[in-house]
Specification:
The complex is a heterodimer of chains A (about 325) and B (about 325). Chain A contains eleven helices and twelve strands. Chain A is an alpha/beta fold and about 325 residues long. By secondary structure, chain B is mainly alpha-helical. In chain B, helix 4 runs antiparallel to helix 5 and helix 9 packs across helix 11. Classes of the chains: A alpha/beta (about 325), B mainly alpha (about 325). Chains A and B meet through helix 2, strand 7, helix 7 and helix 8 of A and helix 3, helix 11 and helix 13 of B.
């Protein structure tokens, strides 16, 4: 490890520590309401538990409301939070529209609202900030990894897309294509939708392997989420090939099962969609409460790359405990 | 007898299946190539059998339900529930046979519930089974606690990915089930009773058929089939995915039954042809995967093919093509 990278790590640690202390000083004893969409996926469950952990570490009294995928429940919860006179409100909005009235009520009560992982179609002055990931960046990080990994060698890639027309599928495809543009040795030879599920990921990969000379012509598979990658890994194994070596596997999300695949040497890289949306939100809130610092309207979370070099067993254990 | 079988081979469903397979072959010349690998057959046609098995199994139960002029919308959700039961039980340390029997029993109970609503409370089938279609997925999520429950129990995984004489286990199970249920309804009077209920339940009851009992059993069979399909799907991906397991498969199953020539108005049904219908749907899916079409075209291609197949079955067009004549003779020979 070079001195520069050591310094960089030390510096980032220092910033992290100071920001925690700023957050701790200013948020201790506050009451924050959190209206969560529901628990439709493992990631959502992890986001909920991370938010609760963050709040506990900062000494925040977190009021949690599960909306069970319904906007009217979220609006009811937010009105409830306003009536209780909380100090701030976190919302993971289930849909983009229909928030103007309730956000205006919160603004009138001078309660800052912070949006987590999804945006809303409402005037920007009605909320403090939105914390979200950049899905195009996620695809680009995955593509950059492949570009660096194959070097000058020829590489034919098959792509497992998310649900046709969904925003993450469009963005993650775009980002990956941007990353491999200009590298003529890497080409996407087949692209089909696996609907973000394991079963479809496996079925589509089976088809790809048959269509490409028993898999011999495929150098790597890029899946828009880890679940499809897990399905693809099984299909590769069923075809008598070794995932991770015969066919490289790169995907997005960072769910526990992809880390256990990495431990087994069957997956090569994943880009994390962090469940920690609350951390940056609490930091922004602390700075705002301290001296009225207006945060940017959009805070982009880090899209971190994980490879088998990043202690996959440890990552698996931590994530498993978050309720993925 | 010989002429009778020849006529059966010429029915529109089998011709459609052959046509779809031939189109796949044109789009992808290696479609029919089958190799022997790791003690099993390996090739696109085998994929069609393997991937088509869950819908084929659902279609077997669905055919019986539709023949009574009913419909079972809950089979997809029952798949999710039963997969979740099997997965959580092996994860909790129960041996595979216990987990499988428990999952099958849960499927049976779900089916009995549907049958109770339809036959005893006289709720319309589409509404009665909608209840479990909605609630079932919630129950499955409760069982899995919202996450995908993964397992590594080899004997359970074998049900989904193992092979018997080189053929995928799922396809073998579907074939055995198809033969068993077909013999049950065609070699006994049960098939006739089911048809009678489908044509006119009141008249069937007056004629001395225990229509209430039979209806309950038909829905129980559908639930049982869904349980088998749910176990296969979970075993295949080594995990129970409560959100996605069996999602919309009830519609594929109904489509397979309809392609198989069973009337939605009840009274006329064929279980083997429903299985052929399921294979036609899967042959299209697999064909799309190996052909290299863009995913945006998947649904359009599928819909176009289905319209063609259903048009072939319409009496008007069938008559023009000469199918209808054979069909009437066939019906007469039964």
């Amino acid at each position: 490890m070079t001195i520069i990278s050591k310094l960089a790590i030390a510096a980032s640690l220092a910033t992290a520590l100071t920001s925690v202390s700023i957050a701790q000083e200013n948020l201790q004893g506050l009451t924050v309401g959190f209206s969560q969409i529901g628990s439709e996926s493992g990631w959502r469950a992890a986001e909920t538990s991370v938010t609760k952990q963050q709040a506990e570490a900062l000494g925040i009294d977190l009021k949690f409301a599960d909306a069970q995928q319904k906007q009217e429940n979220q609006i009811k919860a937010i009105r409830g939070f306003i009536a209780q006179g909380v100090d701030a409100i976190l919302v993971a909005p289930v849909v983009a529209t229909g928030w103007d009235d309730v956000l205006a009520e919160a603004k009138e009560a001078e309660i800052p609202v912070l949006l987590l992982d999804r945006g809303v179609d409402a005037p920007e002055d009605l909320y403090l900030t939105m914390v979200a990931s950049d899905q195009v960046l996620e695809g680009r990080v995955a593509g950059d990894w492949l570009v660096a990994d194959v070097g000058d060698a020829d590489c034919k890639v098959v792509e497992l897309q998310g649900t046709v027309g969904s925003t993450p599928a469009i963005n993650r495809k775009q980002g990956f294509e941007e990353a491999i543009a200009g590298h003529d040795n890497i080409t996407i030879i087949r692209s089909q939708t696996g609907d973000f599920t394991r079963a479809k990921g496996k079925e589509v990969m089976e088809g790809f392997i048959k269509a490409e000379n028993g898999g011999a012509d495929i150098c790597a598979v890029y899946a828009h989420n880890d679940d499809m990658a897990v399905g693809a890994i099984q299909a590769i194994k069923d075809a008598g090939l070794k995932p991770g070596t015969d066919i490289k596997v790169v995907s997005i999300d960072g769910v526990p099962d992809i880390f256990s695949a990495m431990v087994a040497g069957e997956a090569n890289a994943t880009v994390e969609l962090t469940p920690n949306m609350a951390g940056p939100a609490f930091e922004a809130l602390a700075a705002y409460l301290k001296d009225g610092t207006e945060p940017p309207k959009t805070i982009i979370t880090e899209s971190k790359l994980y490879t088998p070099a990043d202690n996959p067993q440890g990552e698996y254990d931590t994530r498993k405990s978050l309720g993925y | 007898m010989k002429r009778f079988q020849l006529e059966r081979l010429a029915n529109p469903q089998l011709l459609a299946l052959v046509a779809v397979l031939l189109i796949n072959w044109l789009l992808f010349p290696n479609f029919f190539r089958i190799t022997w690998q790791d003690g099993r057959l390996f090739g696109s046609v085998i994929d069609v059998l393997n991937r088509g098995a869950p819908v084929a199994i659902l279609a077997i139960g669905m055919t019986a339900v539709i023949a009574t002029k009913g419909v079972d919308l809950s089979v997809g959700a029952i798949m999710a529930v039963c997969g979740a039961v099997a997965a959580t039980m092996v994860v909790a340390g129960y041996p595979t046979p216990v987990a499988v029997i428990a999952a099958l029993s849960v499927g049976l109970v779900c089916g009995l519930w549907n049958g109770f609503l339809v036959a005893v409370l006289d709720i319309q089938p589409i509404v009665a089974t909608l209840v479990l279609m909605v609630a079932g997925r919630g129950i499955a999520q409760l069982i899995t606690e919202g996450s995908i429950v993964t397992f590594n129990e080899p004997s359970l995984i074998f049900i989904g990915t193992g092979s018997f004489l080189g053929f995928p286990m799922a396809a073998v199970i579907a074939l055995v089930l198809m033969i068993a249920v077909t013999l049950l309804v065609r070699r006994t009077a049960i098939g006739l009773f089911i048809q009678a209920i489908g044509v006119n339940r009141a008249a069937a009851s007056l004629a001395g058929i225990h229509s209430r009992m039979l209806l309950v059993l038909v829905y129980a069979l559908s639930g049982f089939c869904a349980a088998i399909a749910g176990i296969i799907v979970a075993a295949d991906i080594r995990g129970a995915d409560a959100n996605n397991s069996g999602l919309w498969l009830e519609l594929d199953a109904i489509l397979a039954v309809v392609i198989g020539g069973t009337s939605l108005l009840g009274g006329k049904f064929s279980i083997p042809l429903a299985v052929v219908g399921a294979l036609i749907i899967q042959a299209m899916n697999t064909g799309i995967l190996v052909s290299g079409f863009r995913p945006e075209f998947n649904l359009i291609v599928k819909a176009g093919m289905i319209i063609l197949i259903l048009m072939l079955q319409s009496p008007l067009i069938g008559n023009a093509l000469g199918f209808f004549k054979r069909d009437t003779r066939q019906a007469g020979s039964k």
